């Protein structure tokens, strides 16, 4: 958790860039090389999706990436290995994105212990509702893992307050309803959502879902503490896997353009 706190503190007036990739996509070695390139070219932390066969919060781009990874045999131990291999090279925060089914099948205590041992800092579990989160958040905290909850534009003030008080690391503000995926514009409701979160916690508020371009990042950086970009990265990785470009080169250029947009 301390690495997340320190990363935000070091930014000053700049905003955090938090890319998302899927572990093992299109294979282990390439996902490691892609993650290294993203971190080296300016990302402040990295969100690593642990592939799952029924990713309810994810749109078709990330679903396809999870399928590519699973088809190459990626399992939870491989995801922890990726975190461990990255931790040997970087001190930047590494955040796991998973679903409750694989987490509980593996065992929550075992999952968070192995994530912590690998060098992970936080976890996002989008299909755990507020009412069922306290025990998992406690088990995560016992291992030094930040529980990073999601708030949506439809969350009422009382629910936002309860979610924000449960959070560690930062609060993930969902920019749009529905699943992940690139969007042409960012909802005007998002700034109000961020302001609502900030009324109830001093933790950073970061915006994700649908953030696709440097212009989106620049807009969100005007009111949020960080920007999470997922499908736009994963689409580039998928294009490269299909023979349309070099993934490392593509994510490097994209990260540099997004990082420029995060600067105050």
Explain how this protein is built.
The chain is of the alpha/beta class. The protein has one domain (16-262): Aldolase class I (TIM Barrel). The chain has twelve helices and nine strands. It has helices spanning 2-11, 28-40, 60-71, 76-87, 100-106, 108-118, 133-142, 157-166, 189-198, 214-220, 231-241, 247-262; strands spanning 16-22, 46-49, 94-97, 122-124, 146-147, 150-151, 171-174, 205-208, 226-229. Strands 5-4-3-2-1-9-8-7-6 form a nine-stranded parallel sheet. β6, α8 and β7 form a beta-alpha-beta unit.
Count of separate DSSP helical elements: 12
Overall geometric form: globular
Structural class: alpha/beta
| Total E-strand runs | 9
Instruction: Name the beta content range.
Output: 5-15%
What is the average of the pLDDT values? 92
- CATH architecture type: Alpha-Beta Barrel
Function: The alpha subunit is responsible for the aldol cleavage of indoleglycerol phosphate to indole and glyceraldehyde 3-phosphate.
InterPro entries: Aldolase_TIM, RibuloseP-bd_barrel, Trp_synthase_alpha_AS, Trp_synthase_suA
Catalytic activity: (1S,2R)-1-C-(indol-3-yl)glycerol 3-phosphate + L-serine = D-glyceraldehyde 3-phosphate + L-tryptophan + H2O
Active site: 47, 58
Features:
49% helix; 12 helices; 264 residues; nine-stranded parallel beta sheet; alpha/beta; TIM Barrel; tryptophan synthase activity; globular; lyase; aromatic amino acid biosynthesis; RibuloseP-bd_barrel
Give the helix/strand layout.
Blueprint: H1 2-11, E1 16-22, H2 28-40, E2 46-49, H3 60-71, H4 76-87, E3 94-97, H5 100-106, H6 108-118, E4 122-124, H7 133-142, E5 146-147, E6 150-151, H8 157-166, E7 171-174, H9 189-198, E8 205-208, H10 214-220, E9 226-229, H11 231-241, H12 247-262
Parallel strand pairs: 1-2, 1-9, 2-3, 3-4, 4-5, 6-7, 7-8, 8-9
């Amino acid at each position: 958790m301390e690495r997340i706190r320190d990363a935000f503190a070091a930014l000053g007036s700049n905003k955090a860039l938090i890319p998302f990739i899927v572990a093992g996509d299109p294979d282990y070695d390439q996902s490691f090389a892609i993650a290294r390139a993203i971190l080296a070219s300016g990302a402040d932390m990295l969100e690593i999706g642990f592939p799952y066969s029924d990713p309810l919060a994810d749109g078709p781009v990330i679903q396809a990436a999870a399928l590519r990874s699973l088809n190459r045999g990626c399992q939870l131990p491989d995801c922890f290995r990726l975190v461990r291999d990255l931790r040997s090279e970087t001190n930047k925060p590494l955040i796991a994105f998973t679903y409750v089914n694989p987490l509980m099948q593996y065992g929550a205590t075992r999952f968070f212990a192995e994530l912590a041992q690998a060098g992970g800092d936080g976890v996002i579990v989008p299909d755990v509702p507020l009412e069922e989160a306290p025990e998992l958040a406690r088990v995560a905290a016992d291992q030094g893992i930040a529980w990073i909850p999601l708030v949506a534009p439809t969350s009422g003030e009382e629910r936002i307050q309860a979610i924000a008080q449960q959070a560690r690391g930062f609060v993930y503000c969902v920019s749009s309803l529905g699943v992940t995926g690139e969007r042409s514009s960012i909802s005007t409701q998002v700034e109000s959502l961020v302001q609502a979160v900030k009324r109830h916690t001093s933790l950073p508020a970061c915006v994700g879902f649908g953030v696709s371009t440097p212009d989106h990042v620049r807009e969100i950086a005007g009111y949020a503490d960080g920007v999470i970009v997922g499908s736009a990265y994963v689409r580039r990785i998928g294009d490269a896997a299909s023979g349309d470009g070099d993934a490392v080169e593509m994510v490097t250029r994209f990260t540099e353009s997004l990082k420029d947009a995060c600067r105050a």
